[in-house]
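sry for the spam today, last one i promise. struct tokens for design, 86 residues
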């Protein structure tokens, strides 16, 4: 599966890294620019479905957290800049 992360207000590398601990040996994940490529090989259709379902759930959480963190970093930087100008 290929997931284009270009339109997010978050660093694709942070999202990919956040998913790492939950990846299984049957998974091959790499980041190609802003596209997250994930290959999953399982012996059964049920196992494949379970792995992909878990991965998509984890991806959603990683995207939300990375987006919020990026927004907060931007807000902090703007606040710091405003304080320095006072």
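last one done:
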């Amino acid at each position: 599966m290929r997931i284009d992360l270009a339109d997010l207000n978050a660093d694709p590398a942070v999202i990919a890294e956040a998913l790492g601990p939950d990846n299984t040996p049957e998974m091959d994940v790499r980041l190609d620019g802003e596209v997250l490529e994930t290959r999953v090989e399982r012996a059964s259709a049920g196992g494949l479905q379970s792995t992909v379902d878990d991965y998509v759930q984890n991806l959603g959480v990683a995207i939300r957290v990375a987006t919020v963190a990026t927004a907060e970093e931007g807000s902090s930087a703007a606040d710091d800049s405003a304080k320095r100008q006072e």
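DSSP finds two helices and three strands in the chain. ok im logging off now
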